[in-house]
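Course assignment 3, question 2. Fill in each field.
Student: A.L.
Task: Predict the tertiary structure for the chain below.
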Amino acid sequence: MQLRAAVIGVVLAGGAVACSSADPSLRMTSPRDGEQVTSPVRVEVELEDFELGPAGSFAEDKGHLHVLVDVGCVEPGRSIPGGEGYVHLQLGEPSAEIELEPGEHTLCVQAGDGTHVALDLSDRVTIEVVE
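Answer field:
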């Protein structure tokens, strides 16, 4: 599987995301679970009470996103690897376009801290890419 990601527009719940005392949440708004899509697949995320920043940013409730393709989410506290199936949105992007082959795929969007350590902040969907 060869993955290629491109940064696309910003999709944040309510505009800018600010930290607060509430628990952070993450929800993949596109694609939806069970949806048939064409490639490239547009992945969009809404975040609440979590600030996006570039890899290397260190602050509570701040980090960057990862799109994990057909590899499952990473256990919180473990490092999110690179390589096949792992797309790192290292500049703090809340969305991406990913080239996928036709067939069924499971996507997990997961937040990580500044050093790519997985946070307990993720959402997953299963989609079918059609030609």
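Instructor remarks: Residues 4-20 have pLDDT under 50 and may be disordered. The chain is about 0% helix and 45% strand.
Grade: pending
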